[in-house]
UniProtKB/TrEMBL annotation:
This is Glucosamine-6-phosphate deaminase. InterPro entries: Glc/Gal-6P_isomerase (IPR006148), Glucosamine6P_isomerase (IPR004547), Glucosamine6P_isomerase_CS (IPR018321), NagB/RpiA_transferase-like (IPR037171). Catalyzes the reversible isomerization-deamination of glucosamine 6-phosphate (GlcN6P) to form fructose 6-phosphate (Fru6P) and ammonium ion. The record marks 146, 153, 155-156 as: Part of the allosteric site. It comes from Streptomyces physcomitrii. Residues 11-225 form the Glucosamine/galactosamine-6-phosphate isomerase domain. The active site is at 67 (proton acceptor), 136 (for ring-opening step), 138 (proton acceptor), 143 (for ring-opening step). Belongs to the glucosamine/galactosamine-6-phosphate isomerase family. NagB subfamily.
Length: 261
């Protein structure tokens, strides 16, 4: 996989925004897979700035979700659907009709998971999937020991995850759903290009295991090693435990625009 070490989160955001801008120039109707959380926000801000300046036209792009809470009422402000409308679609000038996501309020959740996988395939597949990584190496809500061939499915949130997410629900853990729908690792690997962004020292061990460790279900993100076009963008703090960090820095220095991502 490609590994790009950048000075900080803002630089990572600019780099990935540039890659997305290049994709949209080649394929204006590209299907972009997006993630929630704080890590990808620099990407969305950098891309929105390019749209606002007229440098990028994202209006024909299509957006799809990585995961969604189960059981929140339609329109709940903390559903990932609503969050992505605020953080991605509205700033980029993309109509909600171009947004694809799993139905977290479906009566038959298993059927909704299968339907979402089928919809992604029918749409021609994801062109670029943006990912974050957990401190334990999880991607999406695929926790350690998830099957590397898993498809979109329902998962139970750990107590720690619910505690971590309580801040978005008025610090009331009782308001945090117990379940989510997540793209499986196999579904994620179907995307044509995977771009993982990791920042901060807390992600350093997970990044090292993902990039330099063995392929193992205990580190779900290590499945990116199987992908023909996976790019890992990390700041200096997140790269601090990479044994081959100097090699990655040298490679990036020779290709500063990093057109390859």
């Amino acid at each position: 996989m490609e590994v790009v070490i950048v000075p900080d989160a803002a630089a990572g955001g600019e780099l990935i925004a540039g890659a997305i801008a290049g994709l949209l120039a080649r394929k204006p109707e590209a299907l972009l897979g997006v993630a929630t959380g704080s890590t990808p926000l620099p990407v969305y801000r950098a891309l929105a700035a390019r749209v606002a300046s007229g440098a990028v036209d994202a209006s024909r792009a299509r957006i799809c979700q990585l995961d969604e809470y189960v059981g929140l009422p339609a329109g709940h402000p903390e559903s990932y659907h609503a969050v992505l409308l605020r953080q991605v679609l509205e700033p980029l000038g993309i109509d909600e009709s171009s947004f694809m996501g799993p139905d977290g309020s479906a009566e038959d959740v298993a059927a909704a998971c299968r339907a979402y996988d089928a919809a992604l395939t029918a749409a021609g597949g994801v062109d670029l999937q943006l990912l974050g990584i957990g401190t334990d190496g999880h991607i999406g809500f695929n926790e350690p020991c998830s099957s590397l061939a898993s498809r979109t499915r329902i998962k139970t949130l750990t107590e720690q995850t619910r505690l971590d997410n309580a801040r978005f629900f008025g610090d009331d853990i009782e308001q945090v759903p117990h379940h989510v729908i997540t793209q499986g690792i196999g579904t994620i690997l179907d995307a044509r290009h995977l771009v993982l962004l990791a920042t901060g020292e807390g992600k350093a061990e997970a990044v090292a295991q993902t990039v330099e460790g063995p392929l193992a279900a205990v580190v779900p993100a290590s499945a990116l090693q199987l992908h023909p076009h996976a790019t890992v963008v990390v700041d200096e703090a997140a790269a601090s435990k990479l044994k081959h960090a100097d090699y990655f820095r040298h490679t990036y220095a020779e290709k500063p625009s990093w057109q390859g991502i």
